[in-house]
Amino acid sequence: MSVARVTEITATSKKGFDDAVRKGIERASKTLKNVEGAWVQDQKVILENGKIKKYMVSLKITFVLND
Q: Which of 8, 13, 26, 53 makes an SS bond possible with 19, Cβ 3.0 to 4.6 Å?
């Protein structure tokens, strides 16, 4: 039997939502062991002078705890 934990992170990108998700998962995988899944909880854009400056995603990352 395995036990998993879920942690929430926020990631940003100047390119788009897909890039923000990729960056968030890559960064989480550097610190967390046994990352098995992620889902996008929320997404929004940061504006400057009416133009998109950054894309932001809130991710929930699932990882399995070691025995």
A: 13
